[in-house]
């Protein structure tokens, strides 16, 4: 927590009682403070020297120097003459923090009384408590703790530093790194320090202790941390583990101590795929290599025999061979090529390196191989039975993990749901192995919009949404589950542009309660709008809008009708989605045109049988006269209209402005447009399906709405089987 700003005051006028104080006097003041010349300091201050003057290079003021040189009398003198007790150096350190570095309890108490915050930090996130821990000042540590210092506070680094994964360390890590055993004991036993807090690189106090090569107390500190159940499988720089660091330190005692731990991952690797055993052999550490092998380390981790031979260590060669090392170690082929283009580089790296197998799964939990974050364990690249996979991690016994697996196991082999290959359990984690896809729908629309560029027909939106609808329909009817978390991030696109539904950790088994399905239908309504608008409004923002607002945002009549039916499904919720798979939104323009022609071929329409059922059904109501096809004869090109009316010149039975006659017109034009005599008409019309869709964009949805529950639905295309 920061105190209020007390920034560098350079550039302000130097205060002076006589107006003649020079900059030299300000520097003389700082020098006098450093040397402890009380009288000279008194004289300079009375002569007008600036008590808050700060050196250019580090921003040190007289007060900072007085605290650093442990001169309590000078501190009180400077404060008496107006020194700012909260003034910050260039690195943001206050006199209070400097007092923490020096371990001066009296000054810490003084600055607290002057308004310092016990948890104030410098620009790098260091607090006085952290400084006292890192410098081994026990008395100051206890004083700060008793006055409210936060023991497990993590250093908050600057934004650019955090992007480099700097910061996040705690007082415990500082004490461990600097070898302060007594401080470590106090933090753990008296102050409740968390032994497994991680910094921004994922390192805990154990890792900090082991990476400090000059620490003479490293064995004592390691034992202390292990006794408090420090995680022995953490990773730090280059993906190294505590065991690998202990081998690199060539410290047999540390290696032995770590191998005593029940949960040690002896075969874990760094980012290059090197295990502790491989490091031991490379570093000619025979005793450590033998210890590792005797504790069960795999010898299938590199060309160990060749390395030992090259080091002229024949006894180690014999030992390794007795423990299963191969004379002819063959690493994975360098010419292997991944199927995935997006994840190809990381997959090649993972394929090339050695990793201990988890059943049939090869995986490395490292940022390089992370696909996405989740609420539990993240999603990583992996190989399951040598197949490229996305691996979703859960903690063992996770209700979410159990739901995910249960739902996927109920799906059929060829499915619109993401393919499920299998799962493995290891060290308290469940690994769910799924087909590896290239993008989420959100990513595709946000970053690869050019791949989703619409033709006039909206083919991309139609195909994507039809695949999603089929997947959800399969989930409801074939699997008996409701998804409960439909959103763009849970819809995946593979390398062949196929769409599948994923993320079932919130799914529920259907019990017959309509609301279970309604929630999925409502989410589908929002997804329709999200896709047809190409993701221009974030999905989470759409979720905050009312149904009326969502409907108003629909760009066309077909999408609007589909969304309305999803948001208000009526009573037959269970089968509602199956029916919507035949909605005109999913019809191609050619299918729409063919449907209109087929309906126009009905005899009652061709003969204009006024009292027929179909013409009465199609008749415009009083509130429907804003449709695009009202007065349709005046909207068709006049030369086309004249040509089409010629057929009725003898009986004078010309086309009228009714829906039935428009459908008959579309049917007749389709029958005759390719005749030689109609070449001029064809040049005007172009492609009929496009012509009528653009002229009358709401005609198909109108006809569909009027006829969907009648015998005439036989003319509608079957989009469900596509």
Automatic annotation (TrEMBL):
Molecular-function annotations in GO: ATP binding; protein kinase activity; ribonucleoprotein complex binding; RNA binding; RNA nuclease activity
Alphabetized PROSITE patterns for the sequence: ANK_REP_REGION, ANK_REPEAT, KEN, PROTEIN_KINASE_DOM, PROTEIN_KINASE_TYR
Listed InterPro entries: Ankyrin_rpt, Ankyrin_rpt-contain_sf, KEN_dom, KEN_sf, Kinase-like_dom_sf, Prot_kinase_dom, RNase-L_RNase, Tyr_kinase_AS
Keyword Endoplasmic reticulum: no
Pfam families assigned: Ank_2 (PF12796), Ank_5 (PF13857), Pkinase (PF00069), Ribonuc_2-5A (PF06479)
Organism: Equus caballus
Residue ranges, compositional bias (Polar residues): 1-20
Ranges that cross the membrane: none
Segments for region (Disordered): 1-21
ANK repeat ranges per the UniProt record: 24-56, 58-90, 91-123, 124-156, 167-200, 201-237
Assigned keywords, A-Z: ANK repeat, ATP-binding, Nucleotide-binding, Repeat
Coiled coil: none
Domain Protein kinase as annotated: residue spans: 365-586
Residue ranges annotated for the KEN domain, each copy included: 589-722
The name this protein goes by in its record: Ribonuclease L
Biological process, per Gene Ontology: defense response to virus; fat cell differentiation; mRNA processing; negative regulation of viral genome replication; positive regulation of D-glucose import; positive regulation of transcription by RNA polymerase II; regulation of mRNA stability; RNA processing
């Amino acid at each position: 927590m920061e105190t209020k700003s007390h920034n560098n005051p350079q550039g302000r006028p130097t205060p002076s009682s006589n107006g003649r104080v020079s900059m030299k006097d300000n520097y003389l003041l700082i020098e006098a403070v450093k040397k402890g010349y009380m009288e000279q300091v008194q004289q300079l201050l009375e002569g007008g020297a600036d008590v808050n003057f700060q050196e250019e290079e580090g921003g040190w003021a007289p007060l900072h120097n007085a605290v650093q040189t442990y001169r309590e009398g000078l501190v009180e003198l400077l404060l008496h003459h107006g020194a700012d007790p909260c003034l910050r150096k260039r690195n943001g350190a206050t006199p209070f923090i400097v007092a923490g570095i020096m371990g001066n309890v009296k000054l810490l108490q003084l600055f607290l009384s002057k308004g310092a915050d016990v948890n104030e930090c410098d620009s790098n996130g260091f607090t006085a408590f952290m400084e006292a821990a890192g410098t081994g000042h026990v008395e100051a540590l206890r004083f700060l703790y008793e006055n409210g210092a936060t023991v497990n506070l993590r250093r908050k680094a600057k934004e650019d530093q955090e992007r480099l994964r700097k910061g996040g360390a705690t007082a415990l890590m500082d004490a461990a790194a600097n070898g302060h055993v007594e401080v470590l004991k106090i933090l753990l036993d008296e102050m409740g320090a968390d032994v497994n807090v991680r910094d921004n690189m994922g390192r805990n106090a154990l890792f900090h202790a082991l990476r400090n090569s000059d620490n003479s107390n490293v064995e004592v500190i390691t034992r202390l941390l292990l006794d408090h159940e420090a995680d022995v499988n953490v990773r730090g720089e280059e993906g190294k583990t505590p065991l690998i660091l202990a081998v690199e330190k060539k410290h047999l005692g540390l290696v032995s101590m770590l191998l005593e731990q029940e949960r040690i991952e002896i075969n874990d690797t760094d980012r290059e795929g090197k295990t502790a055993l491989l490091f031991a052999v490379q570093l000619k550490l025979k005793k450590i290599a033998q210890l590792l092998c005797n504790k069960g380390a795999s010898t299938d981790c590199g060309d160990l025999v060749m390395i030992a031979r090259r080091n002229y260590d024949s006894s180690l060669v014999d030992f390794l061979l007795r423990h299963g090392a191969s004379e002819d170690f063959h690493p994975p082929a360098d010419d292997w090529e991944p199927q995935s283009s997006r994840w190809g580089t990381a997959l090649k790296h993972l394929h090339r390196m050695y990793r201990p197998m988890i059943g049939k799964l090869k995986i490395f939990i490292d940022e390089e191989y992370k696909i996405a974050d989740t609420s539990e364990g993240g999603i990583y690249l992996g190989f399951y039975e040598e197949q490229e996979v996305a691996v979703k991690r859960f903690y063992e016994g996770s209700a979410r993990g159990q739901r995910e697996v249960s739902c996927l196991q109920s799906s059929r082999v060829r499915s619109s749901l993401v393919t499920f290959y299998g799962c493995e359990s290891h060290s308290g984690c469940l690994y769910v192995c799924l087909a590896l896809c290239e993008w989420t729908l959100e990513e595709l629309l946000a970053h690869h919009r050019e791949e989703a560029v619409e033709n006039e027909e909206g083919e991309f939106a139609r195909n994507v949404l039809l695949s999603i609808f089929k997947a959800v329909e399969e989930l409801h009817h074939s699997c008996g589950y409701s998804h409960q978390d439909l959103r763009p991030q849970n819809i995946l696109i593979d390398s062949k542009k196929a769409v599948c539904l994923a993320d079932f950790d919130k799914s529920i088994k259907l019990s017959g309660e309509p609301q279970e399905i309604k929630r999925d239908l409502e989410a589908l309504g929002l997804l329709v709008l999200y896709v047809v608008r190409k993701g221009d409004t974030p999905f989470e923002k759409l979720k905050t809008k009312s149904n009326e607002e969502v409907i108003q945002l629909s760009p066309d009549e077909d999408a609007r009708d589909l969304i309305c039916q999803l948001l208000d499904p009526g009573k037959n919720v269970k089968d509602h989605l199956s029916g919507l798979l035949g909605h005109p939104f999913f019809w191609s323009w050619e299918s729409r045109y063919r449907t209109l022609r087929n309906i126009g071929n009905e005899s009652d329409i061709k003969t204009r049988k006024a009292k027929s059922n179909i013409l009465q059904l199609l008749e415009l109501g009083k509130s429907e006269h804003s449709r695009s096809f009202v007065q349709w004869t005046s909207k068709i090109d006049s030369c086309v209209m004249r040509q089409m009316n010629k057929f009725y010149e003898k009986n004078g039975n010309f086309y009228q402005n009714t829906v039935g006659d428009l459908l008959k017109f579309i049917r007749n034009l389709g029958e005759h447009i390719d005749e030689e005599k109609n070449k001029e008409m064809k040049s005007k019309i172009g492609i009929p399906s496009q012509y009528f869709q653009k002229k009358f964009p709401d005609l198909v949805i109108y006809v569909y709405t009027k006829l969907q529950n009648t015998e005439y639905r036989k003319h509608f295309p079957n989009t469900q089987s596509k």
